[in-house]
Amino acid sequence: MDAVLIAALDTIFGELLLAGPGALHDSPRRSRLVRARHIIGVGLSIILDDPRKATLLSVAGGGPAVLQAAFRQRIALVTDIILAEREAAELGFDRATALYVTSGTAQLIVAWIAGELDLDREGLTDKLAHLAVGAAGHRLS
């Protein structure tokens, strides 16, 4: 059963990774905040428009140890991919910043799905965009 859930998790992260670069390069002349909202909106659509994906992410964040480990590994992979982007270096992203953004984003999405945040979907998008852009403005080492 764990293998099936991990395979489904891989599918979700694969979809996010395929959509991310396209969303990132859709509008290079927009402000960072507008671009962040766009990218996050694309990602949220992938996750939230299919209740099975949203449920799996909720379970992965706090489920059995093997699923939590797989979730953390996928977060680390996304972190590495962010760091490989030229724009990440231009924004001053280092590993700590990228990990903060990816893991924090995942945890806020899980909390939102669980009904723990008093935000609508647009509010969640805005909150995540502001946090990501804010993190990009500070260099951590």
Structure notes:
The chain has 141 residues and is mostly helical. The protein has a single domain (2-136), classed as Tetracycline Repressor, domain 2, CATH 1.10.357. The protein contains seven helices and no strands. The chain has helices spanning 2-25, 32-48, 51-62, 65-84, 86-90, 95-113, 121-136. α1 (2-25) packs antiparallel against α2, α1 packs across α3 and α6 runs antiparallel to α7 (121-136). The termini are far apart. The model has no long low-confidence stretch (mean pLDDT 86).
The amount of beta strand, in percent, is under 5%
What integer value in Å does the Rg equal?
A: 15 Å
Mean pLDDT: 86
Please, how many domains?
Answer: 1
Write the element-wise H/E pattern from the N-terminal end onward: HHHHHHH
Short description:
The longest helix has 24 residues, at 2-25. It is built from seven helices and no strands. It has helices at residues 2-25, 32-48, 51-62, 65-84, 86-90, 95-113, 121-136.
